[in-house]
Write a structure and sequence with these properties.
The protein is of the alpha+beta class. The protein has helices at about 20-30, 105-115, 135-145; strands spanning about 5, 35-45, 50-55, 70-75, 80-85, 90-95.
Length: about 150
C-alpha cells in the first residue's frame, strides 16, 4: 500500500489524527485481496478531516464481475463511501451506521459492495456529527488507532 499523507491546514490540538485509522482500514481492505494503490489524508478547507483511498481489484480474485478500480472516501462527518465506477449501481454509495466503524467491518463492506453493488444500498443517514462541535468520544475512537495505544 502506497500512502501519501497531506496536510491541508493545521489540526487543532484537541483533535486526534486520523491517518492511523485510515491506514488500518487500508490494511484490512488489502487483506481481502484488494490493492490500495494510493492513500491521501488531510483537512478540507473547512477543517473537516478527510481521506481517500484508490482501490485496484484483481478481477480474477473475485467470483463475480467487479470494476477494475474504485475509490473509497472517508470524512469525519459522513463516514465511509465508495465510488464503484460504472457498475450497475454506479455512483457513490455510503456505508452509514457511524463515522468510525472497525477496519474489518469497512473491508467486508467494500468487498460485498464491489462484488454485488445491487445488494448494497446507499445509507443516507449522515451526517453523523458536526466536525465543529467537540466530541471527546469520537476523538478517543480515532486516537485508539495511533501507534502505541
Amino acid at each position: 500500500m502506497t500512502a501519501t499523507f497531506t496536510g491541508m491546514g493545521a489540526q487543532e490540538p484537541r483533535q486526534a489524527g486520523h491517518a492511523a485509522y485510515i491506514a488500518a482500514v487500508g490494511r484490512s481492505i488489502e487483506s481481502r485481496g484488494i490493492r490500495v494503490t494510493d492513500v491521501m489524508t488531510g483537512l478540507a478547507a473547512d477543517g473537516r478531516r478527510e481521506a481517500a483511498l484508490q482501490l485496484f481489484l484483481d478481477e480474477t480474485a473475485f467470483p463475480a464481475d467487479v470494476p477494475g478500480a474504485a475509490s473509497a472516501s472517508w470524512d469525519e462527518e459522513d463516514g465511509w463511501s465508495v465510488d464503484a465506477g460504472g457498475g450497475p449501481a454506479a455512483g457513490r454509495i455510503h456505508k452509514g451506521l457511524g463515522v468510525v466503524p472497525g477496519p474489518e467491518d469497512v473491508a467486508a463492506w467494500v468487498v460485498v459492495l464491489l462484488a454485488h453493488p445491487e445488494l448494497t444500498p446507499s445509507r443516507e443517514d449522515h451526517p453523523f456529527r458536526d466536525h465543529r462541535v467537540p466530541d471527546p468520544v469520537f476523538e478517543a475512537q480515532l486516537a485508539s488507532y495511533a501507534p502505541g495505544t
